[in-house]
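Section 4.2 – Deliverable D4.2 (structural model, holo form)

The reporting period included a commitment to supply a predicted holo structure for the target in complex with S-adenosylmethionine. Inputs used:
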Amino acid sequence: MRARNKPWADDYLRDNKDIVELSPSDYKNKWEDVFNNNNPVHLEIGTGKGQFIVGMSEQNNDINFIGIELAKSILVSAVQKVLDSNQKNIRLINEDANNLTELFGENEVDKIYLNFSDPWPKARHAKRRLTYKSFLDQYRHILKDDGELVLKTDNRGLFEYSLVSFSQYGLILDEVLLDLHEVNDPTNVMTEYEEKFSNKGQNIYRCKARFPK
Ligand code: SAM
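Output (structure tokens):
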């Protein structure tokens, strides 16, 4: 996802500290303090412009949603969407998913969403894929025992790679869909990329997986 550089992004994120958690590692093991409740925590990695997280939060007021996004200039669009929605169950973090275990304690997260993650098609970049083993190590650490990992993508190469990576890691696959939009799932909230690629006629793949106990 490309966005023009926004020199004002830093100030904008700082001005919206009710939504953007500026020192997220302070809340490791204490995210319930941020939301003031014990509701389940769902994490979206690579939130982009926020359409998914806002849509999900509107459907699920009893779930706390946290979105992590590396690019400040993209995150500001997500902040704007959260402000427009007036949802109180969302927080956003400007962080790299490489640092997840610094932000969340063991068993602190109920579900992780990977939506249209960058595919990094070159073999020498495999370690950057968000379904590479080192990321799975972090997901296993922060997810509860029955926690779920949900992957959606239009990219066949990333999907195939991820299924193999999950299998090699011993994950249990609860669902593999090669054409998500062919099935009627009223709970599916489309991301910006999902809308863009399905409008072009591309299949959307989805996989739901769990770590073994
Ligand atoms: N999820 C959105 C969607 O489906 O419309 C955006 C998809 S876009 C292809 C991938 C997003 O992930 C980008 O906004 C990128 O900045 C972010 N991203 C990539 N690597 C990341 C990382 N290591 N940590 C956090 N965000 C990351």
